[in-house]
Structures are given as structure tokens and as C-alpha cells.
Amino acid sequence: MARSPLGADFPAAFPAWKRCLDVAVALPLLACSVPILGVTAVANRMSGDDGPLFHHALRIGECGRPFQALKLRTMRIDIAGSAVTAAGDARITAVGRFLRNTKLDELPQLWNVLRGQMSLVGPRPEDPRFVDWSNPLHRSVFAARPGITGPAQIQFRHEEDLLPAGEIERTYIERILPAKLVLDAAYLEHLSLGADLKLLVRTLLAVAR
Is residue 5 part of a domain? Predict the structure, then answer.
């Protein structure tokens, strides 16, 4: 297990009831997602994309420990670029754009949920390159187990449209990330089963729209 930058005895932020909710919901959803994974694999091949089906993204997990977040790959593997994706990014494939718009690329993270690395609802899992452990707000938010959805993920669902060309990472670090952290910190201060259920419903409605 990776060493926590917050100390070995740093307390977990999420209560036990969240784990029960995670397993009860993630297990059947993961089983139902198998056909979608198969269709995506076929669509990639038909579009001429012979890269891997999954993308393993290094993210910050509970107590600051890094883990590999599993997602459906949406970008070409032969083009380098920024760690942050903006609208119109040439690296995104045709199939990948559909997956991103519908958030189906997040489905494999249900496996991370079952493994206890993520929760259904929680702070957005962040790239280690953008985490500042000297910042108290970063330390408090990134100590918690990250979630597939949450207030920040819903509020910034169309984040790519907010990032101007040429200043993508700077805008993300100076404007987008601080706003997300405020939302996530407020969520963590008022954890409840009712709040999680409401966020799950809001996520389904947002995806449906």
C-alpha cells in the first residue's frame, strides 16, 4: 500500500454506511455495464482505434494515497498533451467524445468502488500533479475517499468548455480547482445518507439531459 502523505494514523473521512451503499449500488451496476463495455470495444475497432479499452489514471485517494482510477479510454495514445482536457481537444476520439458526453467512460470506476478505493459519492479524484499538500483545504478534501460523482462533478460537468485555449492548466489550477474544493469541503462537512441519495439522483438527471 502506498504511504500516506498525511500520516499513517490520519482518520478516514467517510462513515461506514457509505460503504454499504457503495457495494449495494455498484455491484449490480457493474454487472449491467458489461454489455456497454463490449459495445465500446467493438466501436473502437470499427473506428480504426486499436488501442486499449481501459485507461488507468493515477489519482489521489483516501488519506492522500495514490491509486489507479479505471476509465474507458477516450483519447488517442499517440498524441501527447496537457494533463487537463479542454473542449475540442484533438486527442479525443469520436467514440471517446460520445463516452465523455454521456459519462459512460466513468463506468469502470465502479470496480474502484467495489475495491474500496472510491465511493459512489465524494470529492472528485484529483491528479497528483495538482495537489498541494501545504494547502489546508487540499489536505482536508483529499484526505477523503474520492467519488465517481459529487457536488463538484455535477457543478462542473461541462468543465472542458470553461478552459480557454493556451491557458488550460493555469485556469484549472487558479479558478476551477479552488471552486471544486469549496464544494467538496462543504459536502464533507454535512455528510448524510439523504445528501448522497440526492446527489445520485441529480447525477442521473444530469446525464439523462
Answer: no
